[in-house]
Description:
Number of domains: 1
Distance between the termini: 66 Å
CATH architecture: Orthogonal Bundle
Number of strands: 10
Bound molecules: protoporphyrin IX containing FE
Radius of gyration: 21 Å
Shape: globular
Largest sheet: 5 strands, mixed
Oligomer: single chain
Helix content: 40-55%
Low-confidence stretches: none
Number of helices: 15
Amino acid sequence: KIKKIPKEDGLDHSLSMLREGYMFIPNRCQSFQSNIFETRLLGKKAICMTGNEAAEVFYDTDKFARKDAAPNRLIQTLFGKNGVQGLDGEKHKHRKEMFMSQMSPYELNKLKVIAEKQWQNALDKWGNMKKVILFDEVKEILCKSACQWVGISVQDEEMTNLTKDLAAMFESPAKIGPTHWRGRKARNQVETNMSELISNIRDGKLKISENTLLHQFTWHKDLNGELLNTETVAVEVINILRPIVAISIYINFLAVALHHYPHERDKLVKNDEDYYWMFVQEVRRFYPFFPMVAALVKNDFIWNGYLFKKGTLTLLDLYGTNHDPKIWDQPDEFNPNRFAQWEENRFNFIPQGGGDYLLGHRCAGEWVTIEIMKISLNFLVNHMEYDIQDQDLSYSMVNIPSIPHSKIILSNVQSK
Ligand code: HEM
């Protein structure tokens, strides 16, 4: 027997989504006492789901597809056209292999060494600065690291602009007005420059080392044995650069956590690498970042008695799943130790999506993110001293992505 999905009345709730941000799905799941509900977004029927079981069905590629699922405002800022995010089936797997082949322990270690050097350079510079705005500075550390890892050489003067442009791509998707348009402009600009660079490599005007990601992506062949067009390569290279810069958001939250839970700092000083890993996991679970992901129902199916009709937009709640009391004991408490006895599966801890890397859309950069966060945490705890004077460290549960309001101003920074 088919059950009715709990449904909220009204013609459209897109505005409520903007108004409630990260809590849009959790608030409604709470009031319906249900892990699923139906609403209307952008003039269309949409199903929203939360939790382990919901993630499991959402990442079943027989049931959901990604082609045409993302709204245009996201494509124009965050994703770009024809990138891996909107592919399905064999095409997706083949493209995703191109990404995952760059995530070997050897490559990750290369990035780690690069990022440590960039952190050290920045720290040397900060000693002479009255104030350091951590968010802005870390974006630049990460942009430099990302370019070096990918194999793109960028002049110092251009680096500041590139950092700002890449950041605008992830800061603008959920904004309205000028901030949003700034993101679109940034994407057009960087895509154009990157396409030109790729043409120059293909034409032999620019020589680059074969051992670089840029080389691998430039010469990657699709399932028909053809090169991708230069615009698509540009989109995929940006799919590496942009999110590496976005790790700055998590690094901000590392600093916020150290500040709000000072006893944790003492534990980190005394503890081994395992505790660094647990702390990083807890930051990725606890703080808001990517609120939800979207897919379309591939063919009609029934799940838990509910009918999913072909073509229906379906959203999986990432933030809410990471705070689901059915999965997490005291979810609203910051407690790295919970990861000591944590029973991992591919659907219960999903800050960067769930399921499988190759067969599904789980974030290609999860290991990169964890590595960079661990290095950064080590710098914050063991290599520097700083003060966090009176400032607004609160962060919004509405604005996406959420960034502590002061952007974290450090003073009296010194190496130790
Ligand atoms: C996909 C989050 C860092 C590359 C995703 C998805 C999320 C996510 C939620 C979508 C999952 C889905 O659609 O089911 C994050 C967060 C990061 C981060 C919060 C922290 C900064 C990175 C990094 C890289 C990266 C560092 C690259 C080095 C990608 C790619 C995809 C993706 C290529 C598309 C995968 C696909 O469609 O198959 N990420 N990510 N991300 N991420 Fe990340």
